[in-house]
Amino acid sequence: MASATAASESHLPGVIALELSPDSAPPRAAIDADHAARLLDHLAHDLSLLVPGLEKLDLTLAGAHFDVAEALRPGWPLHRRLDELRARAPGQAVKQDARLIAFGADANGDIPQPLQSDPALAGASLRVLPFLISGDEAAIADVGDVLETELLDRGMANAATALLAQDAFATRIEHMRYLTLHDLLAMTSMQYGHMGLDPLWPILEAALLAPGEEAEIDAPPEPLLRLRGGEVSITLFPPQEWGRRYATDNDDPERLQRQMSRFEARQRQFAAVLEAHGIPVVYDYLPGAASIG
To answer: Within a domain: residue 212?
Structure first.
């Protein structure tokens, strides 16, 4: 998932994934600049053990944690903003002509605006810190091939790195590993499958990986969704139309009402997931349709 911003420069986005202990939540949204720089040094060391030549490329880290959905949004805005900060940074450390650039909270605990996480998405046990590998397009392609092959099997962070992160964020961390965005996408797909969200995945995947393309879910008993122009429309049915489409073999009014209530809850669930991933949702009201309540 390497992206090029110029003919000679390319980027490989990745994340540090922190699996927190149950009932453990980081008391701070970001670590200070000193801890971020130390964590970046450890990240560079750990990755260099997997990827020869990494020390010749820029490595940029945000010392702030985010929900997975914030890292998986159309256009990858989190990593794009990290690159914008990187472009303005003089570099905090230099190793063999490469820059190691870490961003963290300032002395007042404030975080650069582009790297502030959404409080509404806090609370999940898996949090991610974005990092970016930048450099010559050919070198990034080589690094990307290695990381896509190695990280899933060998991407666990060194014990010293995990202990540093645990101390920096003042929270208990059960597992800490490195992932490319492709890895994170695959892992999220499996997790959503376990949550019963498999039917929604084609829409989400198309919005992330094929911007501009259209996709549709038209498979009762699931809601009717269409991705077009970067936004998803969810069709709302008046009771009679809903009954014809979704309940053709049931004429018990009370049971029909319960089924329709579950259907509307499913619509709200799909909408919440899409909106968490930064995908706009609109409702396509059919004549006589009532709003989702």
So the answer is: yes
Residue 230 near residue 207 (C-beta atoms within 8 A): yes
Is this model's pTM higher than 0.85 or not?
yes
Same domain, 174 and 65: yes
Q: Helices 181-194 and 201-209 sit at what angle, rounded to 10 degrees?
A: 170
Instruction: For residue 290, count other CB atoms closer than 10 A to its CB.
Output: 11
Pairing of strands 126-136, 58-62: antiparallel
d(CA 56, CA 104) in angstroms, rounded, equals 23
Q: Where among 151, 182, 213 does a domain terminate?
A: 182
Residue 46 has pLDDT above 90, yes or no: yes
For residue 8, give both structure tokens: 């000679």
E strands, the chain, are 3-6, 9-20, 58-62, 66-67, 93-95, 98-103, 126-136, 173-180, 215-217, 225-228, 231-236, 281-285
